[in-house]
Amino acid sequence: MSLFPKVGRNQPGLRVTWTLVVAVLCFGIFLHLIPFYFMIVTSLKSAPEIMRIPPTLIPENPTFAAWQLVFQVSVGSTILRQPLSQYFLNSCLMAFGTLALSLPITSFAAYANSKLQRGRGARWTFLFFIGTLMVPAAVTLIPTFLLTRNFPFPVPTVPNIPGTEIEFPVIRTWNTAWAVIIPGVFSAFNFLLFKGFFDTIPNSIIQAARVDGGSEFNIFRRIVLPMSIPVFAVAAYLQFSGVWDSFMWPLLVIQDSARSPMSVAIYNLINVFMSSGTMRPQASLATNEQIRQLQEAGLSWNGLVVLGILQTIPIFIMFIVSRNYLLKGVKIRGLK
Amino acid sequence: MAEQTLAPGASVEESQPAAVVEVKLTRRSRIEKWAFLIPALLFQLSWGWYPLIVAFLLSMTDARPRGPISWTGFQSYTRVWADPLVGSAFRVTLIYAALSIVLTFLIPIIVAILLMEMKPRVMRWMMVLWFLPLSGVASTIMWRYVYNTDFGFFQWIAMDVLGLPRQGFLTSADQVLFWLIFPGILMFGPGLIYMAGLQSIPQSYYEAAEIEGAGLWRKIWTISLPRLRPIIVMMLTFAIIGSLQVFDWPKLMTEGGPGGASRTVVMYMFDLLNSLRYSDATALAIFLFILIMAITITYRILFKEDPDA
Asked: Which of A152, B233, B292, B305 has its CA 20 to 30 A from that of B259?
């Protein structure tokens, strides 16, 4: 509300510019909504209609066949090794487990760095916390992968304690949900988000509470926390959608299909269908009897889109919950 | 705008004096300070910095999934350096990063500036619609369908609407990188961090500029952009780092094809990892790290001065 003058907005030049701005914004939103429309519409189409050129904008005979087929597959079949609900619970465990550990630990550290530390100590702690943002994840990928097996030894065989026959005690997180949760507990970007926010809380408020004799933890809980709901909402939303959608890391560290998250299950299912030639029924190479049956029943892109919708819903809910806080929660002012 | 500035501390940002009154913490507070810091310090040390040190050590060994490990010095580095596929992977990555930054970096800044002009109520609705999330899996499915060479939407536009010959899209070695970036251009939107930054610019700056007779562009050029500069510098750093280690998107869209034309460095690293060449994969990642550091440091030196300082 600042670029356009408050008076004299009716000048012809300004009105044209204003209309243009509004038009560009509306067009952008329109483009952004297309995928959502496309997903829903495609999930309601029948298989032959999906292959048609030009594509139909409104399904001719809306059918829930794809939803039913996906439901069949996800309740019990050998294509998906576990029922879809199992994968869903695994994903929930990972996402909420990460949030439960990460939000308190990261926000405590950011608060202490912002309000309790001073001078050079604060500066070095800050750099220690955010320095890893500059390191590409690719560099630490393999070491982290090895460390999930025998923390803190990045080697396959654990050495013995010198002079004894006993192995060093190690933490093994590989092939459990912990392997996804633990490396994500401290999030450098969320730290930056929290620190930026806490920096804008006036010191006088905290000082006043201190004079009243509150412990630092109580000051945080009773005064800072209620003020900081927006930043917690943003951090939780970003981290939740990150963990929920990540699939390369779970694919790498979780072997057991009973512990895989939904993203991995869907990725595998998509690969099975893509490679079986589902997308061109006449050229189907499906060797798996079950997949062939599904294709004959009309499963195609419509089924994959249903899976995509299912994968989106939890992120969508988190977004709806945190939407009003998005703008209020972000107060990053650059890396200095 | 008024209700956004009510967020805690928003107005204080500007008035807070640079020199904060020195606070002496009590003994108990000091203990609590460390209680706050230690869990995060431990996690950041063991899962943030320690893997980085391990990466350097690992790249100088012949680490395997099983069996004893011995030091090999810089052998894996020379092996990776001599690999012709590494050169092509770096070429693809650099082209991809340059293209994506040139074509998509400015868009969120401009859209954020324009979006902040809307009335608060309208803006809130526009934001909700714009930030509606779509999972990565879902958008991959959709774009693969759109790019499908037989019955995809783009092929229909190219052949039936524009009358062009049959296009390859993701299966054409010359075009694949552009088409990978294209969704980022088409799905343009505002950057949340820029919007938050714009919101903290005091209204009085714009009012003063208005009295001086500054027009629309002049206000953007002399107030909005300079005030956003620290954020832009930070986001550009992240964009450089992010685009140079791009992996998920091309992996899901093309698997590196056709013929390696979209195989980025990190994708090739995964290929090495899948053939269990741990040390070579890590050495390759460290080459990428060095490249990223070199680019980021050069660029930070170029953009060092800060209008707020």
From this structure: B292
Provide the residue range defining the domain that includes B193. 74-302
Using CB atoms, which residue from A17, A39, A228 is nearest to B138?
A39
CB B87 within 8 A of CB B263: no
The verdict on B54 and B89 lying in the same domain is no
What is the dihedral sign for C-alpha A131, A137, A143, A145?
positive
> Is residue B112 in some structural domain?
yes
Q: What is the distance between the alpha carbons of residues A85 and A262, in angstroms, rounded to a whole number?
A: 9
Residues B172 and B44 reside in one and the same domain: no
**Positions of E strands within chain B:** none
Q: Which domains does chain A have, with CATH numbers?
A: 65-329 (1.10.3720.10)
> In chain A, positions 190-209, which contact chain B (CB-CB < 8 Å)?
191, 200-203, 207
Q: Based on the structure, what is the number of domains in chain B?
A: 2
Number of residue pairs across A and B with CB atoms under 8 Å?
333
Residue A68 and residue A63: Cα distance in Å, rounded? Answer: 10
Q: Nearest C-alpha of chain A: how many angstroms from B109?
A: 13
Give residues 221 to 250 of A whose Cβ lies within 8 Å of B: 227-228, 230, 241, 244-245, 247-248
pLDDT tens for chain A, 336 residues long, are 578 877 777 788 888 989 999 999 999 999 999 889 988 888 888 877 777 767 778 888 888 888 888 887 777 666 777 888 889 999 999 999 999 999 999 999 999 999 998 889 999 999 999 999 888 888 999 899 989 988 888 877 777 888 777 888 888 888 899 999 999 999 999 999 999 999 999 988 888 888 877 788 889 999 999 999 999 999 999 999 999 988 889 988 998 888 999 988 888 877 777 766 545 544 455 556 666 666 666 677 788 888 889 899 999 999 999 988 988 888 887 775
